[in-house]
Amino acid sequence: MTTTGIGALIEVSADGSVSALMRSTSEQWAAAINHRFVRELFAGTVDEAVMRDYLVQDYQFFESFLSMLGACVAHADELDAKLRFARQLGMLVADEDTYFVDSFVELGVDPSDYLRPELAAPTARFRDLMDSAVDSASYPQLLVVLVVAEWLYLDWAESQEEVPQRDVHRGWIDLHRSETFRGWVQFLVYELERVFPTENDHGSEAEDLARTWRRAVDLECAFFDNVYDD
Ligand SMILES: Cc1ncc(CO)c(N)n1
């Protein structure tokens, strides 16, 4: 296994806010990127029911995730950033939604089973966190959740070189690695560093962002754990 190390694929300034957030959750982050689900996905041995369950829940995650990107188009403070989020939305509609729908066909999951499933507890909590970020209309709040979700996925997806054969496994890995995906994550990290409030004038806002960060990392672990819980 060629583990790249926590966050090592992305540039961050060592004394910046993002680096401090990252250090505050390094153990949970490592647990998530080395999770049993990730290991089985790379080995192509994920139990069929586990894969189904994971993707059905993640399609619900995806819905709130799209809302966050839309909110970033609305609330980012610069035109270039708005354009970047709009481009990413187009990519998600084309590539990621197609992956989900094709995978549901491959796994024999009907629309009636994936469009309105019962939400598992971590999915419901994750959606609450994302929906609150949308409601906050705060670009830094939105970015904190996005950076965790995307960077953590980049880290596990780049953690091994050898990819499995089946589309449903390989496709999910390929969506979260590549030069393009890395560039997207790097953009998010630069943006969060750029707009992060300084301790002096916004101490409580910074603390609020740190809480959101920790909550998102915990939920990533819980989301993986959940598919093995039954
Ligand atoms: C739970 C979860 N976290 C992160 C991602 C990637 O954004 C995803 N698809 N699902």
From TrEMBL:
<comment type="function">
    <text>Catalyzes an amino-pyrimidine hydrolysis reaction at the C5' of the pyrimidine moiety of thiamine compounds, a reaction that is part of a thiamine salvage pathway. Thus, catalyzes the conversion of 4-amino-5-aminomethyl-2-methylpyrimidine to 4-amino-5-hydroxymethyl-2-methylpyrimidine (HMP).</text>
</comment>
<feature type="binding site">
    <location>
        <position position="96"/>
    </location>
    <ligand>
        <name>substrate</name>
    </ligand>
</feature>
<dbReference type="GO" id="GO:0009229">
    <property type="term" value="P:thiamine diphosphate biosynthetic process"/>
</dbReference>
<dbReference type="InterPro" id="IPR016084">
    <property type="entry name" value="Haem_Oase-like_multi-hlx"/>
</dbReference>
<feature type="binding site">
    <location>
        <position position="150"/>
    </location>
    <ligand>
        <name>substrate</name>
    </ligand>
</feature>
<comment type="pathway">
    <text>Cofactor biosynthesis; thiamine diphosphate biosynthesis.</text>
</comment>
<keyword id="KW-0378">Hydrolase</keyword>
<keyword id="KW-0784">Thiamine biosynthesis</keyword>
<comment type="similarity">
    <text>Belongs to the TenA family.</text>
</comment>
<dbReference type="GO" id="GO:0050334">
    <property type="term" value="F:thiaminase activity"/>
</dbReference>
<dbReference type="GO" id="GO:0005829">
    <property type="term" value="C:cytosol"/>
</dbReference>
<dbReference type="InterPro" id="IPR026285">
    <property type="entry name" value="TenA_E"/>
</dbReference>
<dbReference type="GO" id="GO:0009228">
    <property type="term" value="P:thiamine biosynthetic process"/>
</dbReference>
<feature type="domain" description="Thiaminase-2/PQQC">
    <location>
        <begin position="27"/>
        <end position="229"/>
    </location>
</feature>
<feature type="active site" description="Proton donor">
    <location>
        <position position="220"/>
    </location>
</feature>
<feature type="binding site">
    <location>
        <position position="58"/>
    </location>
    <ligand>
        <name>substrate</name>
    </ligand>
</feature>
<dbReference type="InterPro" id="IPR050967">
    <property type="entry name" value="Thiamine_Salvage_TenA"/>
</dbReference>
<protein>
    <recommendedName>
        <fullName>Aminopyrimidine aminohydrolase</fullName>
        <ecNumber>3.5.99.2</ecNumber>
    </recommendedName>
</protein>
<dbReference type="Pfam" id="PF03070">
    <property type="entry name" value="TENA_THI-4"/>
</dbReference>
<dbReference type="InterPro" id="IPR004305">
    <property type="entry name" value="Thiaminase-2/PQQC"/>
</dbReference>
